[in-house]
Each structure stands twice: as C-alpha cells, then as structure tokens.
Amino acid sequence: MNDIQDILEVMPHRYPFLLIDRVLEVGETTIKAVKNVTFNEPQFMGHFPDRPVMPGVLLVEAMAQAGGYLLFRQIEDREGKLIMFTGIDCCRFRRPVVPGDQVIFELEVVSIKRTFAKLHGKALVDGELACEATLMSAMTER
Asked: Does 13 qualify as catalytic in the annotation?
C-alpha cells in the first residue's frame, strides 16, 4: 500500500488537482487506488449547491491519475517527463459519486507502444460501477 507521500514522490500533480489519496495495490500492468470524496472539495460549491455530485470529468481525471501513477513509477527519469491525456473512449457514467463516497479505481494496461499507452479503467463505489472508460496517453518532455 502506498500513501500520499509515495504518490507525491511519483506524481507531478498537487493541490487542488491531485485526485488520488492512496494506492492499495500496484503491479506491472494493474493498479487499484482510492479517492475519498469529501464535501470540502471546491467543486461542490457550484456542482450542485443543493445536491453535490462529483463532476464526471473529475472522476475520469482521477482515474487517469491512477493510471499515470502506474505508468510513471516505471520511469527512472520521470522528473523530466509528463504523461498527457490524449483520448477517452467508451466512457460511461453509471451512478453519481457524492461526498462521503470512497471511490476505488481499478486500471489495467491494454497496450504500450513507445511513448503511448492505453488503459482500461473502472471507478467503483461500494463495489458498484460508477464509471468506466478506456484512456489513452502520451509521454512528453516536461
């Protein structure tokens, strides 16, 4: 299990845009990470004031960050690199994510070709599918 300090050592993201809190499991081609959704997050002031719902784009971004952690940790000179989002396929939202939920992201590498990667990911709340998507990325110089 990797805590927030481990995540900060690997990821370039910082507050308020680091969206994963803990890595539960990580292998060569798979990862399981956690996002604890709290009412204190800035997006809930406007999305929506009467019924706070985690914006879908942030759910997908958190999923991508978990995938980025998986890919980044295998790169020796990651300080000089960035992994950029290049595409999303087959993205579907199945249930709202609200404050108090704990989201578990499960991702698996589908393919890696030189600096390009494709991963399939799921976001689960209480074992129920909240979102799934196929994510594409490219590594670039920072």
From this structure: no
